[in-house]
Specification:
There is one protein chain. This protein is mainly alpha-helical. It folds into 2 domains: 1-54; 56-130. The chain has helices spanning 10-26, 64-74, 79-98, 113-127; strands at 59-61, 105-107. Strands 1-2 form a two-stranded parallel ribbon. Helix 2 packs across helix 3 (79-98).
Length: 130
Amino acid sequence: MDLIVNNDDYQTACDNWLKVAYYSAYSGRNSVLFGNVPDPYNVEICVHYPLFNPVHYLHLYCNGEARTQRLAARGKWTADSIKYMNARSEKLVQEANTSVPPIPTLDTSTTSPPQVAKLIKQWIMKNLPK
């Protein structure tokens, strides 16, 4: 997704993102999209969204301490933007837990990236159509 955002036009980028995924799926391939949904863009209002069924969501989460360390290490995050992201993340976890059905949350706070990748793969394989 980061490669197709131009001029902070996230919604158009999201529309294009789903268009590419749709044509890939139309060729008989399963589509797995990774991105920050629904902020800063909303995947559910994209033109091609109704063509995907079923849609599964997985929320990747890390605690505030881990997120602060990770964002600070990137070098371009201010204290205020990190504070905002920590608050936003907590809100997203609450929304995931109270949505119907609940959105599964994978806590990556102390999990290595290779292990997180394995857990995501397991989740994907469990949710693929039979």
